[in-house]
Design brief:
The chain is mainly β. The protein has two domains: 39 residues, no CATH class; 137 residues, Ribosomal Protein L25, Chain P (Beta Barrel). 2% of the residues lie in helices and 26% in strands. The chain contains one helix and eight strands; from the N terminus they run βββββββαβ. The strands form two sheets. It has a six-stranded mixed β-sheet with strand order 5-6-7-3-4-8, with no helix packed on it. The radius of gyration is 23 Å and the shape is extended.
Length: 208
């Protein structure tokens, strides 16, 4: 990882079309920021260091409208798919993580380890990671991408991927496994300043 640029000279695929190997020439003088195509790879697995099975979870908003009006029917604005799962393989070092640990997957983002399950004999554990929003516009945008619903009409689910799990029904008791974290603003967001302005309580300070 992080070697820089390389020119792809050839690639080999298996009968299903999956790429099994690539032959490249390193070009370290190139600017990786201007490189359009990027790849990520893992070391070849062995019996001592096998690849680790992981499931990456991402979630969407429960409703497709930012603010519901009094005459809105909530059934017309329910997000058809709110949970997305991606099955993947990761480095064997992932097995050293504990529940609650945070890790960054290259070009995927930050994730928190939520749970570890096994196939019964404990030989092939699967690690469940939940994506942590980074505050960027792309991660804050709704994944539903649905047109505005017309009052009295039904919303059709569109673009649902095969690895998505739909959560339907407006009358659902919500429980959460969200982790409690410290305020992103910190404990002291108002440094002392020599001023004649009246001292007021910080707008970021939460009620005790």
């Amino acid at each position: 990882m992080d070697w820089g640029n390389a020119f792809v000279r050839s690639k080999q695929t298996d009968s299903s079309g999956a790429i099994t190997s690539i032959s490249m020439d390193l070009h370290l003088a190139g600017d990786f920021k201007k490189t359009e195509k990027k790849i990520t790879w893992l070391a070849e697995p062995s019996s001592t260091y096998p690849h680790t099975s992981v499931t990456l979870h991402d979630y969407d908003y429960l409703i497709t409208k930012k603010k519901l009006e009094e005459d809105d029917d909530v059934n017309n604005f329910i997000t058809p798919v709110t949970e997305f799962k991606t099955e993947a393989v990761a480095d064997p070092n992932v097995r050293k993580l504990k529940k609650g640990d945070v890790i960054q997957f290259e070009r995927k983002g930050y994730y928190i380890l939520d749970a570890v399950s096994s196939d019964g004999d404990g030989k092939d554990p699967r690690f469940k990671f939940v994506q942590i929003p980074d505050g960027r516009a792309a991660s804050l945008a709704s994944k539903a991408a649905l047109p505005a619903a017309v009052p009295g009409s039904k919303v059709a689910a569109s673009g649902a991927s095969t690895n998505a799990v739909g959560v339907a029904g407006p009358a659902v008791t919500v429980s959460t496994n969200m982790y409690k974290v410290e305020s992103v603003y910190g404990k002291d967001v108002s440094p002392p300043v020599d001023t004649k302005m009246y001292k007021v309580k910080s707008v970021y300070e939460t009620a005790s």
